[in-house]
What does this fold into?
Amino acid sequence: MMELLVNGSKTFCYTGGKAFDASQPTAIFLHGVLNDHSVWILQTRALAHHGWNVLAADLPGHGKSAGDPPTSVEAAANFVRELMDAAGIDKAALIGHSFGALIALEAAARMPRRVSYLVLVGVAFPMKVSPVLLEASQYDPEKAIAMVNTFSHSTLAPPPSALGPGTWLYGGSRALMRRVLASNPRVNVFYTGFKACDSYAGGDAAMAQVEAPTLFVLGQYDQMTPSKAAQSLIRGARHGQVTTVPGGHAMMLEAPDAVLAAMRSFLAP
Amino acid sequence: MPGYSDPGFDTLALHAGAAPDPATGARAVPIHLSTSFVFASSDHAAALFNLERAGHVYSRISNPTNAVLEQRVSALEGGIGAISTASGQAALHLTIATLMGAGSHIVASTALYGGSQNLLHYTLRRFGIETTFIQPGDIDGWRAAVRPNTKLFFGETVGNPGLDVLDIDTVSGIAHEAGVPLLVDSTLTTPWLLKPLDHGADLVYHSATKFLSGHGTVIAGIVVDGGSFDWAASHAAHGKFSELAEPYDGFHNMVFTDESTVGAFLLRARREGLRDFGACLSPHSAWLVLQGIETLGLRMARHMDNTAKVVAFLASHPFVARVGHPLLESHPSHALAQKLLPRGAGSVFSFDLKGSRNQGKAFVDALQVFSHLANVGDCRSLVIHPASTTHFRMSDDALAAGGITQGTIRLSIGLEDPDDLLDDLKRALRAAEKAGA
It folds into this structure.
């Protein structure tokens, strides 16, 4: 792992079990609302051991990263630029999930020259959050965690996953959401994250600015960001590819091999 | 199986971890009696060994049948994952050996299964791990027993032999103040009666030999990680968990807490503990436990109904001096059991005959439906007379210190017709009375 000072704040980046090597291309992984770097364990380890530098950041104010949590997708996109500057990276592939996918999209639009590939996993635009869920995330986070957990998982029999065989993903996702919520005693990063997704209006405009080849990884059973909600972005992508994997919104965990295979066939170091 | 939402206990007991077999269509969980699993390619092999991909390599580390069991018990307990082991004792040892080494200290309840007592009091001491034992209800005692090298709190949901109920909410709070997790042995209650993780416990284990398998056919254990304990934070504050929060040169220099925010314990327990200590569960045994879990809810409800009837019968019998079950207001844990265990405090309990050691033996010998053996949690009703069997070497004074009299009888209430159980007990009580005449 690496700790970078971004905008004056300590930023935790998981590097996939390998040291950062400036001679290799870099992939930056961006997690979704109330998640952290660990949702990408398998994909990050695989890329890190096959020719890529990996930086899977905890967003500011989330998990092991200090700083103020971004209150908008645009602010989070600026964080990505600052992260790349802090790491001395000129160009990187941006890989994001859900909220992280919107961040990656906006960052790719803002710095088209510095983004080599864009991978949007479980993405939708607009990414409206139901008023009931938004309110619950603010006033009854435990209830909202239960709702998100139900909507994000599609199977009671997931394959071996992030922790190996014997992983129970419903429980793992719930424990992670609770941990990330507790990691910031000052700001409810559940609500701020959802609010940022809900209020983001720039998706189509951003897509039009993106020059990098773009891969959409969509979950066949995704109830949070169903594939039809990604169609506007897919139509707007200049160099877009779409892969559907057999999983729900938490597809990196429910279909880890398929998500990895899609990434690896798309990303050429 | 897309489309599930908030599955309930019985649905999880049947479906968690298992879908129809994609290769054969088999609906029941197949028993994968294979030591090893073929790699799709050299790259696939390397990726599995390097933890870039998840999958099965060798059945000491993981197995598809065992993985179903692990997911299922995790689901029922509300955990993030589990590791099945050769026995409940193996699960306890794996947990301790993952979290600490020589020079460490445990605070444990005095009310423990005898095998756990042996491990902590004698065997682990030989390996440099000391344990301080505290009466489960002595809340100040738990707090006072903490040392700088304490790594774990440990107790049973309902403790052996008196069914002292562990105040998990309070004891876990003290553990967390001290920067250590609470491990709970939930064998006698099962998640149908109590989910310790919901009350603040961090790790839960079972002797799956008992109620989970439920049929007296298999020796098995399982430890579930709740994913709630922040090993990295505790290590940063107290320096307690270098095993999880520092690079481990025995495994890719991995920092398990960086690798997984919530699953560091499980990662190390499988990748080191199963690999090196090797107390894995046979897939056939895992399947037997799964078969039992499918009816866990139905069985536990019947265990509780039968137990209530037997407890009421014994409590009103003139030849019975005491019944040690929290169902009774006279039991010291009655109020706590009402709160933590509203469905019942288990079906294993002891009672005292008003009689001698010989009368205790006569009682056991007269029973016809109850089986006289050293186990609990079978679907059949079981009985043992500690003074003439498990504790026969002990003096009267030593027995008394352990809460056992010459007339103490331990029962494990099964699933038979309750009237037959009551008739059997009546007959045996008469025989015991006569033996004293």
